[in-house]
Amino acid sequence: MLIFCFQLLLLALVSRAQDEKKDIPDFDCPERNGFFPDPEQCDLYYECIDGFPEARLCPDGLLFESGNPNQEKCDYPFNVECDDREFVQEPKEGIDPKCYRENGFFNHEDPAECGKFYNCVYGKPHLLPCAHSLIFDEAQGTCVRVNQGSIYAKKCEVDNTPKGIDGFFCPEGQVLGPHGIKLAHPSFPHPTSCQKFITCYFGKDIKELGCMKGQVFDHESTVCKIPEEGPKDCRCWYECLSDSNCPNDCRSDCTCPSE
Q1: Distance CA 224, CA 234 (A)
Q2: b/e string for 114-137 if b means 16 or more Cβ within 10 A?
Q3: What mean pLDDT comes out for the span 83-94?
Q4: I need a surface site. Which of 51, 53, 213, 253 has the fewest CB within 10 A?
Q5: Average pLDDT over residues 119-147
Q6: In whole angstroms, how far apart are CA 110 and each of 160, 168, 230, 235, 244?
Q7: When comparing pLDDT for 163 and 86, which is higher?
Q8: Same structural domain for residues 154 and 176?
Q9: What's the CA dihedral at 176, 178, 184, 190 to 10 degrees?
């Protein structure tokens, strides 16, 4: 009976040893301690402690940066050189369809939209815009000029048709301000409103902006003012003068329709 119990104990120890061996990855640590890349999978790496490896996986969408064995670092693909490590983990399931991976910077789903992109964090997309005239390049993970885009950057047709607001279009050529200085973002009176005004960013990107209620835009100083201190043609934009001949229906410049 004693021999039988000893045999059972021996079998249990052998089985446990085999299970522990299965838990140890088939990886030879280059050094006794440090973080080292898997030879085939770019988001898989190993932490070696006293020569024993423990497999670790980067968050989905990130890759292991193998430049410094003393540093445990997962980074975006455009910052990592994988070389021969050509495999990665399968994408996480159940994340937003706008995210190819759980983490990363990805193209907008509209094929005609090149100036917006998504920053995906744990599978949740955050829509971000590029600055005017720039396009998003997924390979570089940032917005670039069209001529700086990689072969993987989206190609969108550029609509060069001038855009206007209530019949106003940004003037061609330079717009000079005080002392003859070129204005990068000149502002102009709105064609139909004293409270609103129009700004042409970089001389082309037209935007409609407005003053606070009770104020009018002074195009000479390019600031918002109270009507009494603003342009003469906007002094009665909100209400007619008390001594007006037409206190209920005067024009914005305080004249009467019959005049």
Answers
A1: 12
A2: bbbbbebeebebeeeebeeebbbb
A3: 94
A4: 213
A5: 94
A6: 19, 30, 44, 46, 56
A7: 86
A8: no
A9: -80
- Token pair of 254, please? 């305080």
Decide if 53 contacts 89 (C-beta within 8 A): no
| Long-range residue pairs from 203-207, CB within 8 A, at least 24 positions apart, any chain | 203/170, 203/171, 203/173, 203/174, 203/175, 204/132, 204/170, 205/132, 206/163, 206/164, 206/165, 206/168, 206/169, 206/170
Q: Which two tokens stand for residue 127?
A: 């829509």
Domain holding 154, by residue range, is: 93-158
pLDDT of residue 259 exceeding 80: no
From the number of C-beta atoms within 10 Å of its C-beta (0-12, 13-18, 19+), residue 46 rates as: buried
* Predicted local distance difference test score (pLDDT) of residue 9: 33
Among candidate residues 155, 149, 231, the one with its CA nearest the CA of residue 195: 231
pLDDT of 59 reads 97
176 is a domain residue: yes
Asked whether residue 85 is domain-assigned, the answer is yes
Q: Are residues 83 and 30 in the same domain?
A: yes
| Beta pairing partners, 49 | 52
CA atoms within 13 A on the CB side of 35: 17
Neighbours of 25 (CB within 10 A): 15
